[in-house]
Amino acid sequence: MNKNSTILLGLYLLSCVYLSAALAQDRPRIAVFSGPNATIQNSVPLVSSNKVRAKEGLPLLVNPDGSPVRFDHLAPQRLAAPVEVLIEQFTGHPLENDASQLYGPPDGYVDIGGTFYATRQSPGDKPVYRVTLRPEDGLYLLPYMAMQANGSPWDGSCALGDAPPERCRQSFYPDASRAFEEIDRGVNGRNGRGTANPLSSRADFDFYRAVPPGGYTQGLTEEKRTDTGDRAISPEILGEDFFPYEPHGRDPRLQDLARAA
Fold this sequence. Notes:
The protein is of the alpha+beta class.
């Protein structure tokens, strides 16, 4: 068993002890520890969307054969302000319309020009639901609109393929809270009942950065922490405070593993 496996096994056993004690309560409280090189806390690169590339007059992403991509990719992000959207009725499943007689009326209709009306104006109008999305709703899948400081699009985690660490963004989460939030929000799909919150509906979680794979190189104030802690986080150093395997890998040292244990 290698040193990483040893520390992860120890953290797992500690979590099990914590969980066993919690199960005696009405609502469990579970400790979640972040270990080094933890693939489960990794994420795919944030790549500039075709929407922002078109906005900036840049070439669009295409398929390997040069043909246009079918869809623009989306990334889970937060709204900064409330926004009203119109959702076309019967688009949640290919056969919703087949059971249209079972449904209540829509909130209104949208004509070919995109104007909303409370009643249908012509046979071609689309039935829609009108809803306000709010920041407190949580993550939404949205186009990724960020660009590099020099005006280039992001095509991967780093500014260039061989960029040094200071010109790369981290793909690993600093603790497991974001991964749990994405699961709860249904970013990767709903639960078997067709709803969300499969984790927080059953337990409370405390997140600990034992030997984390992602770190705050600029530090973090106490009020912004998503893990369990009672003070600000000082600027962290790759290979000393956090240990990813990409884009620039670092393995924890024996003293790091001992500290976590």
